[in-house]
Amino acid sequence: MFMPMLTRMLCNAALALMVGAMPFCATAAEFEIQMLNAAPGNAQHTNVFAPAILRISSGDMVTFVPTDTGHNTASKRGMIPEGAEPWNSPMDTRYSVTLTVPGVYGYLCLPHYEMGMVGLIIVDDAAPNLESAKKIRHPGAARAAFRDLFDQLAN
Ligand SMILES: [Cu+2]
Asked: Distance between CA 87 and CA 74 in Å, rounded?
């Protein structure tokens, strides 16, 4: 087991026991994913999450930012680890999730799912549910979009 993950687990255990954070606990980090009408530097690629692939550590917080209007974020059924909380945000709303279960999280924008507005978040390591997440089927452009993201994970 990697040391950072072990440390994080010990920290989570300490917090759960309400004994306070141990001195070596790293502060959970915060990340942002923009919800955009077009990819930065590529106007042809419309309706995107940026970054579309985000790697974080368990316990970190991710905020989806409604930089452009007309978007939301929803986890995809079958594409989050066992025991993880699904989410489905209101439209045009700044929305935060704190992800604690290691694995890969597939998510999408409901209005633009079939147009391929999807993303992946990897918490610690994609391995726990990578193969099952890759098996989920998608309509329209979402199929190629998820396949592309999974290909990028492999490289
Ligand atoms: Cu959208």
From this structure: 5
